[in-house]
Amino acid sequence: MQHESGNEHPAPLSAGAQPPAYGPPKTRRSRRKPRRKLLRVVVFSALGAVLVGGGGLAYLWSHLDGNLKSTDINAALGKDRPGAQHNGSMNILLLGSDSRAGTHGKYGKGISGARSDTAMVLHVDKTHEKASVVSVPRDTMVDRPACAKPDGGTAPASHRSMFNEAYQAGGPACTVKTVESMSGLRMDHYLEVDFKGFKKLIDQLGGVDITTSKAIKDSNSGLSLTAGKHTLKGNEALELVRTRHGVGDGSDLGRIQLQQAFIKALIHRAETTDLVGDPAKSYDLADTATRTVSADSELASAGKLLGLAKDLKGISPGHMNMVTMPVTYDAKDPGRVLPLTKADHKVWNALRADRPIPKSATDSSVGDRSESPVSAGT
Hints:
Layout: H1 57-67, E1 69-71, H2 73-77, E2 90-97, E3 116-124, E4 131-135, E5 141-144, E6 147-148, E7 154-155, E8 158-162, H3 165-183, E9 189-193, H4 195-204, E10 208-212, E11 216-218, E12 223-225, E13 228-232, H5 234-242, H6 252-271, H7 279-292, E14 293-296, H8 302-313, E15 320-324, E16 327-329, E17 337-339, H9 341-352, E18 374-376
Parallel strand pairs: 1-14, 2-9, 4-15
Antiparallel strand pairs: 2-3, 3-4, 5-8, 6-7, 9-14, 10-13, 10-18, 11-12, 16-17
Helix pairs in contact: 1-7, 4-5, 4-7, 5-6
């Protein structure tokens, strides 16, 4: 993807100009250890509960199917898309929607519609034994393609548009189209989780255990945690994954680290929850999970989601890698970042060729520079 300068880094700030709100880090980048146990199950681990058996199985299955919301991505995007890969690998766009519907202004007033606060490209390799995950910062300035609106009409193409505004402009199909335009990769599926369902799911799991290496306080999200061990229930968990001002440089890059750490903790909780020994709890979790999830029409059934969950669960912890899409600070717009074109190509080309993402791809990125202050477990 090309930008105005065509270079890897933006032009220097002019005399007297203020530095970007992100600000350069004060310490040199340290090499992080590979992240483990990421996104094998996530919230979809609860879908294992549909295997409750008995004479009511067909009824329960159809009921769960009726919970799911879907979008026909193929119809919305047409044929102007990257070609599908036919080697057994799979690309899934995972979205966390910041829709305020039904929250009575609790998570921000004066905000219409929804935006994709969280976006991750999950690439499962052809053996379904390895995976790579690329987090796309919501504040990345991109060239958004023209998109069909869900209620009719067209959202015009936009130069230097914030990435998460694609969802607001044309729903999940527009976000998929924007990611495909950026990466040259076809998204085989998309999955989305919303605010309200996320909270309820965490509560039904009994909370998620984390440890903080230092106190975290963010008046914007409402989060206030002391250093130490915590069991986060739904509301605090949501505050954590929305926090940005209380960690790192106060940008979305720090929030991504919190989200990645929380996913590890969520997976640990899901894997230690007995879904077989408590059928009633299992069904409640599956019911909530399917009400929480939106998907493309080809994936929007309990059976297909269960198959996907099984595929992800088969990926061993040591065979999953997670990175943030390479970006640099945007000197023209404080608080925003720009894709690093050459580095990004290394990332997307690796996924296209079904190879691991080379470490050199993220060397010059301002993302993933330090350890997250949150870790899984107590």
